[in-house]
Amino acid sequence: MVLVFLAISLWLTGPRTNAGAFEFARILVPSEARQLLLEHVQLDFGNTESPAAFPSIAPAAAAIPSSKIDLAALDAQFLKSDKERLAVASHLAAKYRISTAESLRYVSHAIEVSKEVNLDPVLLLAIMATESSFNPNAQSRAGAQGLMQVLTRVHTEKFEPYGGVVAAFVPEANIRVGALILKACIAKAGSLEAGLRSYLGAPNASSGPNSYTYKVIAEREELNEVARNRSGRASGQSNA
User: Fold this and answer.
1) Using alpha carbons only, how large is the chain's radius of gyration in Å?
2) pTM for the complete prediction?
3) What is the pLDDT of residues 80-115, one digit of tens each?
């Protein structure tokens, strides 16, 4: 163990390498990697307890013309009240077996990021549910990571403002990068459903009952229904 520790220490600090703590963090378990990043963010951006501690993705999102975004991807005006937020968070906590406190944080992050990218926060939650079942440490065989299963090897530069690709395991960063990618996919594909297929990396995928797009849209409608029932809004109201 001592020799291994010394070897790693030399590698991290060696004059002929650019390796550092964040490079090493990539091979650590996600929780350790997350802690390293949070320490970095706290030093550079302030209070890590607030979503504002993480750089906004709004400037990058603003470069994508809103005129190209399918109206079905925009905010359906749910999650505006504390009652709706708590109802949705409680529903997600029970369905995905996470704590209500954790679920509330994800709802809060989704609302914050949705304002930065001008997309529906419930849509972001539906993608997190479908992609990772709200496991921030999720990793796929293809290399997708975090809540929104971002392919970090493809989108490395998007994580640079957050300390590097290890940020894929930090919800505040992962949701922002994922939301930016989603907005770009929707704008390029021309519709919400086509954008979802593009986000999945399968633009020619089917849209049947067992498809990715169906699951995301169904999850979104389920969450909207939970919020609608809590708010007392008419169930016939459109929330596409």
Assistant:
1) 19
2) 0.78
3) 999 999 999 999 999 999 999 999 999 999 999 999
Could you give the CA distance from residue 187 to residue 189 in angstroms, rounded to a whole number?
6
Q: Using an 8 Å Cβ cutoff, are 129 and 98 in contact? A: no
Residue where the block lists tokens 């991807």: 73
Which pLDDT value is given to residue 4? 40
Number of helical (H) and strand (E) elements in the chain, helices listed first = 10, 2
User: Distance (Å, rounded) from C-alpha 134 to C-alpha 125?
Assistant: 9
Residues 6 or more apart in contact with residue 134 via CB below 8 angstroms = 92, 96, 98, 102, 103, 106, 128, 147
Whether residue 72 contacts residue 192, with contact meaning beta carbons closer than 8 Å, is answered with yes
Tokens of 32: 């350790």
The per-residue pLDDT for range 108-156, each reduced to its tens digit, is 999 999 999 999 999 999 999 999 999 999 999 999 999 999 999 999 9
Is the separation of the CB atoms in 199 and 144 below 8 Å?
Answer: no
As a whole number of Å, the end-to-end CA separation of the chain is 57
Cα–Cα distance measured from residue 87 to residue 223, given in angstroms and rounded to the nearest whole number: 9
Task: Tell me the sheet residues that pair with 151.
Answer: 144
Task: Please return the burial class of 146, using the count of CB atoms within 10 Å of its CB with bins 0-12, 13-18 and 19+.
Answer: buried
Q: Please say whether the beta carbons of 88 and 223 come within 8 A.
A: yes
